[in-house]
Structures are given as structure tokens and as C-alpha cells.
Amino acid sequence: MAKIEFLNLGKQPITNNFLNNPKPKKEFFYNLKVTFDEKSKIVSLSNFVQPEKMFNETYAHRASMSKTMLLSNYKLSNYIKKRFAPRSILEIGSNDGIFLKNFNNILSIGVEPCKNLALITDEMGIKTYSNFWDINLAKKIVNKYNAFEFIYSANTISHIHNLKETISAVEMSLSDNGIFVIEDPSLLEVLKKISYDQFYDEHAYVFSILGIFNLLSETELEIFDIQKTSTHGGSQRIYIKKKKNKINISQKVNNAIKSELDFGMSKYETYKKFAKKVESSKKKLINIFENLKKNKKKIIGYGATYKSATVLNYCGINTKYIDYFVDTTETKQGKYTPGTHIPIIKPSEALDSSVDYAFLGAWNFKKEIFSKEKKFIKRGGKFITHVPTPRII
Ligand code: TMP
């Protein structure tokens, strides 16, 4: 029983490292490989990237930049108020306050290592600790505020390298009747959609329910409910409680584990097959770009996401194929994509009549983008996507 590597996505940059210069003198690259642990069934990067290189005061991802995410967080907060009525909330990875700002009258504490983001929520009046989540920070927060009735963490637990310590710190910070909810991309969805771009420096882990179940089996915590969400291309919200808290365990937990076992997610061969499909996806995508360029088509990128860095660098798609990326995030505009050095511009300048194709970096927001870009579609503009299989739409 051991950890076995199944996927090699080659040399990759720090996805958050949007460059000021198209020809940087020095750029950090690492080898992105992915591993399956036969014992715990947990899938992780083979080599973790130093957290300070990724999560710092230049962190560009602002969750509130997407209407889809704003609405999803608003709906979730209403649901949480109704179902659990918590009197205190701790969020691990509070980003720009997209979730916590919905809980005005409840003690809400944020933890956010990126100082630029922590400043935003602090200014909103939400006390935010600009630190990495660990046992020492948990002790400090619990000493001051007592254990919390609700702990939430979206797209963050999968970023923290020491899983065991992370969970122990949560155990310590959760009241006996408290609820802990984590939301992260679903490994089953990644395997089904061949969305290998969920693997990048920040995603130290891409979780299966099976993996989380095994991880918690050695703790006083257990899963009691699961919801699928469409955010980030297919995520799962996992509801966790202390074993001594006698809330019913939903049938959905067993069903989800069964679906994963039926898909073969406890076996290495399934991951090896996935890796073969990733190689074929790369070939098909390069073919599409090559053919369009042969026909002198102008291609741009839509949404310079962290995910797209994996695809562009793995497939070698650079300024030879893509003239520029358009992105609504102001801190990305005027900069260049990491590793591939494609300029990023703002939407007002983007989809003029010279553009024939737009590569969907933000494929997970396809619906929102298509409804926004009706004019482009109407005049014959087309999108390119690699999910679930490379094609023009
Ligand atoms: P994310 O997938 O990491 O949330 O990043 C989405 C990025 O895509 C973010 O930088 C904003 C950008 N974006 C656009 O440029 N236009 C859009 O219509 C949407 C929905 C996102």
C-alpha cells in the first residue's frame, strides 16, 4: 500500500503569479504531478508548493467578481440560517467576505492568509485573522471567542498541506453541537469531465467523499450530509458533525460513497485510465488551435482563471495561438498569464469584430458568459472548450 503517481502535467508556474512583464527575467516553475494513496484513497499533488509563494498580499482571485458565486453564497447563507441557526461562525479562507457578509447580526470571524483580502473584510467590520489555519491559530481564536457553532470553508481545506492538523484544529474549534461544512471541487466530477485543470499549485488535494470519510474515521468527526453544487465546475459540500451529536446521517452519504466505488475510485487503474484520457484531451485541444491558426482565425482567451494556467502550460498554448485574455478581475488586467505570458485586458476592449474564437478559461461559468456575450455569439463568434472533451461550441 503506497502513494502512486498517475499523472504528470509538466512544468507549471504559480497560478496566482500574473506577471507585469511579458518577458520576466525569473519565473518560478515546478513539476506538477498527481498521486493516489491506495490506503486513504486521497488524491494529492506529489510535491506541494510552499504556501507563502501562493497565498500572499498579491493574491488575485476575488470570489465576489462573479455573479454566479455571489448568488450561490447568498443562497447558501440563507439555507444555513434556516437549517442550523448558528450563533457564531468561523470561516477558514474568507476571501473577500463573499460568504460572511451575509451574516450581519451573528458573531462572524474570518481567517484569510492573503493580507489584501483580509483587509477588505476587516474594513467591512468582520474581524479577520490574516494567518494560515493551524492548531496555534485555532487555540488563539477559541480562547477569545469559545468554540463555534458553525465552521465553513470553501475551496480552502483542499489548499492546506497538513490535513491531519487542519482537521484537529477544526475539532478543537467546533462546539459539541456545531456543524462544519467544507466545499471543494469533487474528484468524481474531475474524473468524469476530464477537467484535469483542477490540478494546480493551490489544489494540494482534490477530494473524494471516500477520502474525507477515511480521513475522519480516526477523529471524533463524521459526515452526515452531502450536497452537490455546480460551482467551480462541480463541487461538493460536505456536512460534518461531532460523532456525539446525534443528528441523523443522510442516506446521501452512503449513496455518494457507493457512486465513487462504482466508478472505481478506490482503484489505481481508474486514475491511470484518467491520465490516458488527459493525454488525448491535450492532443485534441492542440489540434483545434493548430487548425484555426492555419485558417488565420483570431483566438482570444475568456477568463484568465487559475485552472486555465494548467491547460495552457501543459498544452503549450501561448501567444502563438491566443492574442490576449479578457478578464473582469481588475488586478489581473494589464498583466500577463503565468508561464505562457499572454496579455490580459478588460472586457470593454475585448470581443470586437476581429475576434473569431474565444477559449473558455472560465468554463465553469459558461452559462453566465454565454448570456453576457449574446452579441458575439449572434455575429458568429464561437467558443472553444476542453471540458469534457475539446471542441468548438
Ligand atoms: P475562478 O474560476 O477561479 O473563480 O476565476 C474566474 C475568473 O474568470 C475571474 O478572474 C473572473 C473571470 N471572469 C470573467 O472574466 N468574465 C466572466 O463573465 C466571469 C464569470 C468570470
Keywords:
binds thymidine-5'-phosphate; alpha/beta; 6-stranded mixed sheet; Rossmann fold; 2 domains; 393 residues; 12 helices
Task: Please give a structural write-up.
This protein is α/β, with parallel strands linked by helices and 393 residues long. The chain folds into 2 domains: 3-35 and 269-392, Rossmann fold (3-Layer(aba) Sandwich); 46-265, Rossmann fold (3-Layer(aba) Sandwich). It has 12 helices and 17 strands. The strands form 3 sheets. The protein has a 7-stranded mixed β-sheet. It has a 6-stranded mixed β-sheet with strand order 14-13-12-15-16-17, with helices on one face. The longest helix is centred in the last third of the chain and has 27 residues, at 268-294. The mean pLDDT is 96. The structure holds thymidine-5'-phosphate (TMP). Thymidine-5'-phosphate (TMP) binds at residues 61, 65-66, 303, 305-306, 326-329, 332, 362, 364-365, 368-369, 372.
Briefly, what is this?
The protein has 393 residues and is α/β, with parallel strands linked by helices.
**What is the count of distinct domains?**
2
CATH superfamily of the largest domain: Vaccinia Virus protein VP39
Percent of residues in beta strands? 15-25%
Helix content: 25-40%
Q: What integer is the average pLDDT?
A: 96
**Number of DSSP helices?**
12
Q: Tell me, briefly, the overall form.
A: globular
Query: How would a textbook summarize the main sheet?
Result: 7 strands, mixed
Low-confidence stretches: none
The ligands found in this model are: thymidine-5'-phosphate
* Total beta strand runs: 17
